[in-house]
Amino acid sequence: MATGRTHRPATRSRGIPEATVARLPLYLRALTALSERSVPTVSSEELATAAGVNSAKLRKDFSYLGSYGTRGVGYDVEYLVYQISRELGLTQDWPVAIVGIGNLGAALANYGGFASRGFRVAALIDADPAMAGTPVAGIPVQHTDDLDRIISDNGVSIGVITTPPGAAQQVCDRLVAAGVTSILNFAPTVLSVPEGVDVRKVDLSIELQILAFHEQRKAGEDASGADEGAPPMRATPNGRKGPDGDMPAVMPA
Amino acid sequence: MATGRTHRPATRSRGIPEATVARLPLYLRALTALSERSVPTVSSEELATAAGVNSAKLRKDFSYLGSYGTRGVGYDVEYLVYQISRELGLTQDWPVAIVGIGNLGAALANYGGFASRGFRVAALIDADPAMAGTPVAGIPVQHTDDLDRIISDNGVSIGVITTPPGAAQQVCDRLVAAGVTSILNFAPTVLSVPEGVDVRKVDLSIELQILAFHEQRKAGEDASGADEGAPPMRATPNGRKGPDGDMPAVMPA
DNA sequence: GCTTGTGAAGCCCTTCACAGCG
DNA sequence: CGCTGTGAAGGGCTTCACAAGC
Q1: A100: which of A162, B31, B83, B242 fits an S-S bond (Cβ 3.0–4.6 Å)?
Q2: Which residues bind NAD(+) (chains A, B) (predicted)?
């Protein structure tokens, strides 16, 4: 999960748990696929499998939206597609601005998944004057100097930051000042934003590191003896106490 | 959060909660920055701020690793960097293969954050024969036909999937068959993998949809009571009950 | 009979608040 | 005295299991 939020922790948005909100797009995708195959109804079991969750969780998730199913039958696919879309706010158009048109920014601009569902890449912004005017994915890149105007003119409320880490906070500040209230941050930086602004973070290197942690664990399971179970509680009286491994002479990483 | 796991839910890896593991890279990044500025020690309060979490959480996280701090003083930066690196398995080299060298795959290949910390892009693989041999980020692209051999030869255990959704499951199967046990999936697909294989998912469009949900909610707060957009239709046959909003005549999305 | 919707139980994680220790 | 390390309390999410309803 490449995710991080900046949100009132205990606030359940309109009674819908955050964890449920995060799964709605998953359900929506599975339902859309069913809809395209003209499947009229689906059971919680089938839909759960398609979405990669278990059926009890799915039913509880849907129960927060309302009673949209029919007992003994299942859920009406089209109806659910609409209800979830509406709940997520996808029945309206969301103009999005991408700031930082490097490799990643260009990749996102070209990414079909953006346009597919309510989102529209309204502007591409970069600090390099040489890029100004160059079209990327058919959209001309504009210069950072005009950021304020671009955001206002297009009514952008969602910004995507794909700049180098050093520029991210400054870009973020300018986006917020211009009226952006939701930010998707790909730069490996902790952004600070005023109350009321949502930040979500996608961090590729963090994802890899989490995988490496588990990967290492798998490798260790084979060889080492049966030393699982109880972690060493308070051990050595003083001095450093960790599971194992002390400082090496040469620092890696 | 662009995150999805496929993991034994109740298994705390070596006693370290999954939530803690997910934050270790964050701490590591903040610590590395301090290290570069030659800061010798840091308090839980300072480090927590830099990492964007609260200090109680940070201290509890560190307590799972061992007692690495000094009361009244704080934590030794270099020492913590090493301990966290070791815990995450970053003291070893992880060869990574990227499959699907489109815009996103190329962006990842060029992404500096990969190489920076234990990870090395060992191979780029694509199904397009025309790309074979073309260097991307200085690494020649190889053809999917040789996937098996490429994985084995390079000892790759972590694979990154950046193919179109239709190809993702098949690529995944082949990666797993070749010995990959951790997968970072950028394709908007639910991958099914055998037990023992970890999958993490990064889904850009899901992130946007979650932002849209909150964004919509913010907008709704101002003009409360205003019509939310969906014209009531689909005369409730016998009591569909949702918060509000019934089926519209024309299906959006 | 079959599937939804949901109280209840349990688990995991966060937060609190302070004892413990340098 | 300051800051860490940690029991205990609290909250949210998941899972169970079954009553409700078509």
Answers
A1: A162
A2: 100-105
